[in-house]
Amino acid sequence: MKSIVIAIDGPAASGKGTLARRLAGAFNLPYLDTGLLYRAVARRVLDHGADPADAEAATEQARTLNRVDLERDDLRTKEVDLAASAVASIAPVRAALLDFQRDFAQVSGAVLDGRDIGTIVFPKADVKLFITASLDVRAERRFAERKAQGVATTLEAVRADLAARDEADRTRAAAPLRPARDAHRLDTSTLDADHAFAAAAALVNQALSKG
């Protein structure tokens, strides 16, 4: 397998992260969860006692981000969820993280998932997938995750959080969430993990065979 870049975009809890990791293993490629970059930046901002909406503070942390920051075990809390959404809307933060993402795939290719991989980070990616699912299905998935983690919440609260994040992702000025014009769309609403992977792998193989 030659070095290729597979760009996977989609809203929160659509299943894109699970798919990305499995595709990386199947096609022997490195994997980067780009959402983790924004979570790590948000965590650093919070650690410094700054406001995640403060563009100057968030950009400073983005510019000094390193791979060790991605290994922290406190990047998936509700506090970081909210802070990450704030820092991700800041254009200079997204610009500061572009080189990090592109450098990651420079040598060996990669599978990257996020919100703007196929549109901004790798507009010439070998394969682009846009993974989606209905809001209700995504809320049920995220609620199950939170419950398994021992987080006290309700399905209604999780649904409201996802709806708010969807709106923020779609309407932000910097790299809004949208499918690339040449992305293959996959709705996972009625698919379990194995069927979703099979469908995604078929789309990747189809795209590669044409390329």
From TrEMBL:
<dbReference type="Pfam" id="PF02224">
    <property type="entry name" value="Cytidylate_kin"/>
</dbReference>
<feature type="domain" description="Cytidylate kinase">
    <location>
        <begin position="6"/>
        <end position="202"/>
    </location>
</feature>
<keyword id="KW-0547">Nucleotide-binding</keyword>
<feature type="binding site">
    <location>
        <begin position="10"/>
        <end position="18"/>
    </location>
    <ligand>
        <name>ATP</name>
    </ligand>
</feature>
<comment type="similarity">
    <text>Belongs to the cytidylate kinase family. Type 1 subfamily.</text>
</comment>
<keyword id="KW-0808">Transferase</keyword>
<dbReference type="InterPro" id="IPR011994">
    <property type="entry name" value="Cytidylate_kinase_dom"/>
</dbReference>
<keyword id="KW-0067">ATP-binding</keyword>
<keyword id="KW-0963">Cytoplasm</keyword>
<dbReference type="GO" id="GO:0016301">
    <property type="term" value="F:kinase activity"/>
</dbReference>
<protein>
    <recommendedName>
        <fullName>Cytidylate kinase</fullName>
        <ecNumber>2.7.4.25</ecNumber>
    </recommendedName>
</protein>
<keyword id="KW-0418">Kinase</keyword>
<dbReference type="InterPro" id="IPR027417">
    <property type="entry name" value="P-loop_NTPase"/>
</dbReference>
<dbReference type="InterPro" id="IPR003136">
    <property type="entry name" value="Cytidylate_kin"/>
</dbReference>
